[in-house]
Amino acid sequence: MDSRNGPEAPQESNVKSFFNSAPPLRDGDLICNKLKEFMDRISLSSENGSPVRVVCVTSGGTTVPLEQRCVRYIDNFSSGHRGAASTEYFVKAGYAVIFVYRRGSCQPYCRYLPQDSFLEFFDLTEDSTIQVYCILQVCQSHATMVKKAIRDYRKAVEEGLLLKIPFTTIFEYLQILQMVAKSMSWTATRGMFYLAAAVSDFYVPWESMAEHKIQSAAGPLDMRLTQVPKMLSVLRKEWAPSAFCISFKLETDPGILLQKADMAMRKYGMHVVVANELATYKEEVIIVTKGRRTAVRRHNKETDLEEQLVYLLDEMHYEYIKQGGA
Ligand code: PAZ
């Protein structure tokens, strides 16, 4: 029910109470200024003579803190690889990208850098004449890849096509998503949301959360988690009604995956739902649209599935803009 005509619908009041009780973003003003600067620059640029398209890519998993002075939290498996890889292909396709990512997750143009053997990437040459002086250089075997990554990254940043905004908790993520959506409203149908982040379904409301570290002396822990309000429909209906919206659906049970993807399309009004299964998500996804399912498979270990995925979504978005959105 519309709140103007009577009492608030439960969903509407859940959304309000989520935002009212969430701890305010520590760097909210900074993010707001960065978004404004980015959008001002983008609004003056063009892509082959047409206004630039803008995509918000979300990436990595949100955490659910269990204590206000957080020692423990609930997390999920997402590495951020999909969002980081997709960002590179969106920039390549001419989009300006706002990359909303989990702190410490995979980054665009850095996906190939080793995480646990980072130091193996470098050679060190000591200069015997000056004891403290040494030259650090990338090993020959990795030089081509690193040079390309640096060039592509700098190009994206210098051309003003990449803005990165980090989050950790579910509270930060949803507040940032709302800010980004509002700052993109002027892009209308040229805006896109590509929501690849793995967002918590349950959380502990801030006001009912323990302030200090939960003590084990009291015995087993009973904790009630509240459902995170379904923000996809709010995004679609209120924050960004003209944007082209793509959400992702992950399941472990292949028997319910497509049914859940269809439901997300209907219930939240998504234009596209990308369905994937935990066991195979790196190799295969299914693009679900109204009345159509298209499987996208990775060709081989040297290629990225995201390259094909972004290519197809870019075409769909182009068509959506041509038709004035719907
Ligand atoms: O981040 P990653 O590359 O490890 O994984 C990507 C993914 C599986 C989290 C993404 O494709 C996805 O399905 N995101 C939505 C998950 C959900 O249903 O909430």
Automatic annotation (TrEMBL):
<feature type="domain" description="DNA/pantothenate metabolism flavoprotein C-terminal">
    <location>
        <begin position="55"/>
        <end position="156"/>
    </location>
</feature>
<protein>
    <submittedName>
        <fullName>Phosphopantothenate--cysteine ligase 2 isoform X3</fullName>
    </submittedName>
</protein>
<comment type="similarity">
    <text>Belongs to the PPC synthetase family.</text>
</comment>
<feature type="compositionally biased region" description="Polar residues">
    <location>
        <begin position="11"/>
        <end position="20"/>
    </location>
</feature>
<feature type="region of interest" description="Disordered">
    <location>
        <begin position="1"/>
        <end position="21"/>
    </location>
</feature>
<keyword id="KW-0173">Coenzyme A biosynthesis</keyword>
<keyword id="KW-0436">Ligase</keyword>
<feature type="domain" description="DNA/pantothenate metabolism flavoprotein C-terminal">
    <location>
        <begin position="178"/>
        <end position="303"/>
    </location>
</feature>
<dbReference type="InterPro" id="IPR035929">
    <property type="entry name" value="CoaB-like_sf"/>
</dbReference>
<dbReference type="GO" id="GO:0015937">
    <property type="term" value="P:coenzyme A biosynthetic process"/>
</dbReference>
<dbReference type="GO" id="GO:0004632">
    <property type="term" value="F:phosphopantothenate--cysteine ligase activity"/>
</dbReference>
<dbReference type="Pfam" id="PF04127">
    <property type="entry name" value="DFP"/>
</dbReference>
<comment type="pathway">
    <text>Cofactor biosynthesis; coenzyme A biosynthesis; CoA from (R)-pantothenate: step 2/5.</text>
</comment>
<dbReference type="InterPro" id="IPR007085">
    <property type="entry name" value="DNA/pantothenate-metab_flavo_C"/>
</dbReference>
